[in-house]
Every structure is written in structure tokens, then in C-alpha cells.
Design goal:
Rossmann fold; two-stranded parallel ribbon; 13 strands; about 35% helix; globular; binds NADP nicotinamide-adenine-dinucleotide phosphate
Length: about 300
Amino acid sequence: MLSEVVKQCKPLPPNSKLIVLGGGFSGQHVAALAKALGSNALCSRRSINSFGADFAFDSATKQLPPSQVIGDATHLLSCIPPSDNGEDPVLTSLKDQLKEMPLEWVGYLSTTGVYGDCKGKWVKEDDPVKPKQARSKRRLACEQAWQASGLPVQILRLPGIYGPGRSALQSIKKNSSKMISKPGQVFSRIHIDDIAGATFHLIELARNGLKPPIINVADDMPTTNVEVLTYAASLLGNSLPPIESFEIASRKMSPMALSFWKENRRVSNQMLCKELGYSLIHPNYQSGLEDCLKYCN
Ligand SMILES: NC(=O)c1ccc[n+]([C@@H]2O[C@H](COP(=O)([O-])OP(=O)(O)OC[C@H]3O[C@@H](n4cnc5c(N)ncnc54)[C@H](OP(=O)(O)O)[C@@H]3O)[C@@H](O)[C@H]2O)c1
């Protein structure tokens, strides 16, 4: 719940302005936190008519943000995924403009897919990246482009994102959940409250000179999908479909779904939570789903 995040975050310094490029699920929440803290924040969406759009930005149609809207930003967060050709939509369209701006901090939301398959082991920021999926290779190329941009960038690597309106509760309610058993297979996840909270925590640390280039933002408890769905169903009082083996379920899976099941890793948050002192609002899926339930009709 945003009010919990507000309690543990500091606003941006006076006269700061945060621009969120890509105000989708995570971006909207980060902007909402900024506003709840009394900070100045504006969000882009591809259509100005979309919910929460303060201005339009679409790299594909070359709809660029007006410089009078973004030109004086001190903080910027990009939540926009790579283009199909592997280029970063923000850098391709706006790099020169960003370099003219008084930016003190730039965040890039990336994915833990860049680590590739880790055979269920814990993975930390200094472990080698070995992306196998094409989309993860594109993501790594974007991370590298941001790092080479000369901008004051910090990369936040995220596992599966969930929160109110996008969680296992919805799949249970829509009856779209599959209880798939694959021994040893876990997934890491992060609630949007903690994406927003970690973003502001990192901004504050960077202001005080502490700014590691890459940070995993994940909860404490990588776990199986069966456990998460079982808990979601118990919160809703719904029944669950029978458990299917991965061997059988995989025959009907889309290539995209299958690609997620091909990789197994436990994303370590030790740097964020131990070394950098961030306190998770939702350290596990139970806490996160209980929060999501409050917004579930
Ligand atoms: N979903 C996950 O589980 C997950 C896990 C790890 C990392 N990530 C990554 O983390 C980031 C945030 O995730 P999310 O789930 O919050 O994303 P999301 O809801 O899909 O939002 C993505 C945003 O990017 C905008 N966008 C897409 N293509 C664009 C383009 N060519 N030009 C300008 N804007 C564009 C979208 O515009 P509209 O608002 O107009 O649609 C949207 O605002 C993304 O990069 C995502 O790939 C996601």
C-alpha cells in the first residue's frame, strides 16, 4: 500500500522534478509515490488519452516530449522495454536532449533475465550475465547503451512484477491459472510498492554519494508458482485446478511462457537490503498478495 511506502521514503530535494518515461504498471506507481511525497513528477504514455499520461512519448511514431515539459528534469526513470531491434527507445529518441538536461539521477528498469539460467542458484549483481533468450540479449544491449551514455545512470534489475490488479489473484479469479509442478523450479518476484520504495531509497543514497551501478530489486522469497497460486486461492476462498506436471503442461505452452520455465534463478537482494539498507514493504508473496487483496473486487 502506497501509504506504507510514503512512511519510509524522503521526497526529492526541493526544486527537483522527476520524469517517468513509460508510465505503465510500475511507472505510474513510482510517479504516484513521488506525488504522495509532495515531489514534482510527470509521466509519459504513448497516448495522451491513457490513464495517468501527463505528456505523450512514443519512439515508434516519433512523438517526442516537448522540451518545456522535460527539459528542466533533475531525475528521470525509464520503464520502457527495448525495441524489437534491440535499441533502447529512450536513448534512440532523446539521448542528445537528455544530455543537455540538469539530470542528477537516472534510473533504468531492467530485468533479471540478463542473468540467464542459473540452475536455481542465488544470483547477485556481480555474477556474470549470460542471457539466453533473445529478449534478454536485447535487454542487456539496452543496459550497456545506458551505461555508455554518459548519463548518471543506475540500473534496477527486476524479476516478475506484481501488484494490485496484476497478481495471482487475477489469474485465480479468471480461472486462467495453471498449477504446474516442475521440481526445483522457482521464480523471484517484486511488488510495485517495493519498486517505488527502492527507487526513492536509491535516489536518496545517490544524493549522498552512494550509487552502485546495478541493483537487484527482488523480495526475500523466490518460490514456486504452485505455492503462490495456492495462497492466492486461499485468500479468495476459491478452489484450485489439479496440479499438472511440467512435462505435460509444456506441450501446450506458448513459446514465451515456455521460455520463462527454461530459466531458474533465485535473485539475491542482499545488496539492496543489507548493504544499502532498504527495508522491503513486502518481503514475500504472502504479504504482497494480502496487499493486492485489499484492491480486489
Ligand atoms: N512485467 C514484468 O514482470 C517485468 C519483469 C521485469 C522487468 N520488466 C520491465 O520493467 C519495465 C517496467 O515494467 P512494467 O510491467 O511496469 O511495464 P509496462 O506496464 O508494460 O509499461 C511499459 C511502459 O513503456 C511504454 N512504452 C512501450 N514502448 C514504448 C515506446 N516505443 N515509446 C514510448 N513508450 C513506450 C508503455 O506505454 P503505454 O503506457 O502507452 O503502454 C508503458 O507506459 C519494463 O521495461 C519491463 O519490460 C517487467
